[in-house]
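Worked Example 4.2. Consider the chain below.
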Amino acid sequence: MRYLYVIYALLTFVIGFLIRLPFILLFSLDGVRGRKATWKLVQLWSIEWFFLIGIRSRRIFEAPLDAKKGPYIVVANHISYMDIPILFRTLPFYARPLAKFELGKIPLFGFLYKQLAVTIDRSSGKSKLAGVHKLKDTINEGGSILIFPEGTFNETGAPLKSFYDGAFRVAIETQAPILPVVFLDALSLWHYKSFWSLKPGINRTVFLPVIDTAKYGKDMHQLKEDTFKSMEKAILQYK
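Applying the procedure from the previous section yields the following C-alpha cells:
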C-alpha cells in the first residue's frame, strides 16, 4: 500500500502541474507580476495536492505577522523533500526561494523552478555572486525571499545544523527583517533517506517572531546566532 500511495501522490502532483503549465508559461512573460501570479497559482495547487494526498496543514503564529510590513527574509529549517511543498502551502505571502541550479534542469518542472526561484551553482563563485544580487533585487522590488540557511538536509540528528552566512549577510546589507520559520513534521511525512517514505498526516509550521535586523547594525554573526537559537528552541519546545 505504501508504494501505491507514493505512486498516487506523484501522479496527482504531475497531473496538477500539467494542468497549470499553460498558465505558468503565460505568466512567465510578465516579469515580477508574472512571478507573483505564478506563486498564487502554485499555492492553490499545493492546497489541492495536500488535500488529495491526505496531509493536513496547521500554521502556528507565535506573534502576529503582518505580510504588508515586508519584504522579509524568511529562513527555514531544511530536513525533508516536503520542505518546498510545505513552503508554498503555508507561507502567507509571496517569497522567492534560493535553490540549487540542478533543480532547474528537471524537464518542465525545472522551468517552473527557474521562474519562481533564484538558482545558484554552489561550485561557482560567479553564480553565487549573481544569486546574491538577484536576492537583493527581489527585496528592492518589494518581494520577500526564502533561504534554507543550513544549505542541505540536516542529517546530524541535532535540531539544526550550522547556518551559512548568506541569508544574514543579505539581511544586514538590505536591512530587511528576518522571519524564522520551523517545519516540525516534514521529516516524518517524507524522510530524506527514502523516496518511498511519503505518507499522509499532519504538518505543523511555526512562524516565530520577526527579528528586527536594524537592531544589529553590521553584526551579522550575532544576527545569525540569535536566529539559530530561536529556531532551535522552537524545535525542541514543540517536539
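The first strand starts at residue 55 and ends at 61. The chain has a mean pLDDT of 92. Compare this with Example 4.1 before moving on.
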